[in-house]
Specification:
Structural class: mainly alpha
Shape: elongated
Length: 294
């Protein structure tokens, strides 16, 4: 259920990366020219698109939660297991939706800092998020240190909290170092964007976002195809067996001994392994007549 849910979030994550990467090309150029006002506008553009993408993604996930997760489930297990997996996935997704906006904002801030040459802070924030997620998984999933064992929901809560922690570290550092990060001054009170820069951001950089979206959809579709490729492998402790006997004459079977012609498969047949020792010489018959191969 975790992989099935994260396959659904894969497209959203790549759309966010496409937005910040497309606008980030302008950001690096503006910072190189010392245009901190233009860099501030670029970050505002990223944040606005992050809100829009989060709203659209949340609406889609909430409207089709079970249908989306079911795309990655198959009937290779008992029906009860599939139902339980679907229920776990829906519960997990419901909590994970809360973490979409902090994830998008984190990418917007972190990409802007990297455009200015600051790579250490985003890296440390990511490491801190991983550690928080790891510790909270131990506490919330299994119920240690007096907390209730929440299982699936605990895993989702731990992930969401870690994303808020990552965003908080990056935002606090950015806004407490305004002498270096002059683009952060006046970031939220006003959202005024020059028409020329806005048109450049939309028409020249949005194709990158759509490229990332189409690529993510293709990868998600490919993974969905792979997830439906048959049943779980089970060790039977013996080689493959095929049915033998008079009822098999004139019938067509595949390598697994399954009838693939139109009539119903014959029942209660003796099955022999496809790899077995040859009969001993005393058990072999050497008639002079033509053998019957019907």
């Amino acid at each position: 259920w975790v992989s099935a849910v994260h396959e659904r979030f894969f497209g959203f994550c790549l759309c966010v990366c496409g937005v910040v990467s497309g606008a980030g090309i302008f950001g690096a150029q503006l910072y190189g020219n010392g245009n901190h006002e233009g860099l501030r506008i670029t970050l505002q553009f990223k944040l606005i698109l992050s809100v829009i993408l989060t709203a659209v993604g949340t609406a889609i996930y909430m409207a089709a939660d079970s249908a989306l997760i079911s795309l990655y489930l198959h009937d290779g297990s008992e029906s009860g297991d599939i139902a339980a997996t679907l229920e776990y996935g829906i519960d997990y997704m419901a909590v994970m939706l809360i973490g979409l906006l902090p994830f998008a904002f984190t990418q917007a801030y972190a990409s802007t800092l990297r455009e200015t040459g600051e790579t250490i802070v985003p890296m440390l924030a990511g490491v801190a998020a991983v550690l928080v997620n790891l510790c909270l998984n131990y506490v919330l999933i299994f119920g240690h240190f007096g907390f209730e064992a929440m299982g699936v929901r605990g895993a989702a809560i731990a992930t969401v909290i870690s994303r808020f922690v990552e965003l908080a570290i990056i935002m606090v550092w950015t806004h407490t170092h305004l002498e270096r990060n002059r683009f952060a001054a006046g970031l939220f009170p006003q959202y005024t964007m020059p028409g020329k820069l806005l048109r450049q951001l939309i028409f020249q950089r949005m194709p990158l976002m759509f490229n990332e979206l189409l690529w993510s959809l293709g990868i998600a579709f490919l993974n969905q195809c792979y997830s439906m490729r048959g049943l779980d492998a089970v060790d039977t402790g013996s080689p493959l067996t095929v049915p033998v006997g008079d009822k098999c004459l004139g019938r067509i079977f595949n390598l697994l001994g399954q009838a693939i012609d139109d009539p119903p498969a014959p029942a209660n047949l003796e099955r022999w392994p496809i790899h077995r020792h040859a009969p001993s010489s005393s058990d072999q018959d050497t008639p002079t007549a033509i053998p019957d191969t019907r």
